[in-house]
Amino acid sequence: MKKSMPALPDTFPQPENSGRPDILIVAGEHSGDELAAKVIRDLLRDNPGLKIAAFGGNDMRRAGAQLLFDMTTFSAVGLIEVVSNLSFYSALFKKMLAWIRTHRPRTVCFVDFPGMNLRLAKAMKKEGLSRKGGGDIAVYHYVSPQIWAWKAHRRFEMEKVLDSLGVLFPFELKCYEDTQLDVHFVGDPFAAPDHRLPVKYDANGPVLLLPGSRPKPVARIFPVLLESWKRFRATHPDKKAVVLHPGEPVLGILRELMAADPKAAEGIELVPVDDVENDAQAASAVLMSSGTMSRTCSLAGIPGAILYLANALTWAVGRLLVGDKVRYLGMANILLDRDVYPEYLQKDATPEKLAARLCECFDNPAILAKMQKDCAELHALLHPRENALNAARWLARSLEK
What pTM, to 2 d.p., does this model score? Predict the structure, then answer.
């Protein structure tokens, strides 16, 4: 199931409508693309004449940005995945920097994906393109790296190359108190009252099976979800399931694995994420990999569990670096410091345990009551006060100087 990286064009497109772009947004994966799309819609609502370009995905394109290159179909996570594709990422890095050098957007906003994005920010400073390097390009970063878990020293590197940082979670402000970096809590847009989540709780809805959006993790996680589903359905034969997916190449992997075990695939429907953009997917329970969707499901009040399966070396290195600093992987669990979702990690992520958890979600009313309480607490925690600086207003400030 090895997937090759896409071919890079000789050059990326020229800016639309000629002239200097107002904002370039760089998001290296689906979660960042979704977050940035919300910011773009808000920006263009208040400033319809802005010229926004993006290295990202289709969410940003639909929001109104000029998509220069789709970054979301190949993003890698983990040591082994990144190292095995170093030549691709090196070439991509050089071409992105060349585009910035040539077209000089007024602001570059990096979204998450710090492994590449902070390197680009450093290169911009070194070449004298950014304000921190003596140039005139503002460099903003949206979504803090998880410095509270590992690589805490990054905050001092960020202080040197960024003009401002917008964080999603209020506790992250304290992580930068010993720096001079301009840091703002701009709130989690998924928790905003006007944001329509792509999923919603419905006691009569199907079970969500969410293996992620990156091909290699999906290839590891989905077989476990399939076996878990088969065991659960043995006692709940009338239940249906939905797998939300981002399209190819993930769709091909899902189909291949389902074809290999037709019995496990019974009752499962594959639904593109794009199909739930205007009509939220109902769900009665969820089994999911850790990531942005786990936060989304918690904000929708859908009970379930998190599983995580990494390459063995990636997991060992990660545990060595993180140690005991973080008790959880799921963001809802981290934010409330309790088991909003039970986490089944590595060898603990067995079909037996996951199927049993699904059964509990339907057979124990206390689980749903607790989920609803946790959901309300998360919304209150993650939504900024009225008239506070949100992500769009924060980014718009970069254009004022």
Answer: 0.81
